[in-house]
Amino acid sequence: MDLEVVREQWEMQGAVQAGAAQARAQVHRAVACIAAASRALLGEAGSHLDWLADARAFATPVVAGKVRIAFAPAKLTLLLTDAAGNARETFALAGKTSADAAKWVAEQARKHGAEVAGGAGAPLTFAASEALEDLARSFGNAYRALLCVAAMTKSDQPVRVAPETLHLTGGVAFGDGNSVGLGYCDGDHEIAAPYYYAKPCPLPKQTDADSLPELEGGGEWKTDGAWFGGILHRAEWIWYDAEQLQAGCVVSFLDSAVDASRELFGG
After folding, report:
1. Which residues make Cβ contacts (< 8 Å) with residue 175, sequence separation at least 6?
2. How far is Cα 33 from Cα 28, in angstroms, rounded to an integer?
3. Which residues lie below 8 Å from residue 75, measured CB to CB, with a gap of 6+?
4. Does pTM surpass 0.85?
5. Smallest Cα–Cα separation from 57: which of 140, 166, 144?
6. Contacts by 86-95, CB closer than 8 A, 24 or more apart
7. Which of 21, 32, 123, 132 is the most buried (most CB within 10 A)?
């Protein structure tokens, strides 16, 4: 995917919606259900999830060469899709509980020979639909941006969803055990608002903020807290009032973070 496609398909973003943290927690519970099924059905190959751009959904990898179990956050709906992501069956979660979601997912997994444990859960009803729509829009934008940077850097690392953290991740390997992990986070306990990041691995010897390479797009280096790396806060890309400019901001940050990480490793 090239930058022009990202610019054309970018969905405009603004300020974080009211209720975003609640929406994110609710989505995380639903994603946990399909992640459990993914691991039961596919073992280690099911430890990650995919983002289906057209369905705007988190999904298992393809099961038995023909189906996926997915969750569309904007619609608060579980899906059984074909391999391409076209819905075959749906289960709306509005007014349901986490246990209802787990039961439906377990039924789909059982059809393909896997047992998934269910459990009790809190209601999944959530009225702030704009927050759910914003989350879906954000993951769609991030998916396209990360695919674009993977193409620009000729990286063979896939863009995937880490279900435990609800991060969309990718990366670039430089050789000699050095790499940079790229990703999008919709907010967490350390940083509440959404952000893109670049985490060099292993930790470079040079981490003094005053001597680190410059990052583009309004990105900066995070040198304290739980991790070290480049970070682009949502306030930076939504400062622009056009889809093309927002997309350019994000992609330029990620691409510059790859170059900066390579420089830190002496490349």
Report:
1. none
2. 9
3. 92
4. yes
5. 140
6. 86/55, 87/55, 93/30, 93/124, 94/124, 94/125, 94/126, 95/123, 95/124, 95/125
7. 132
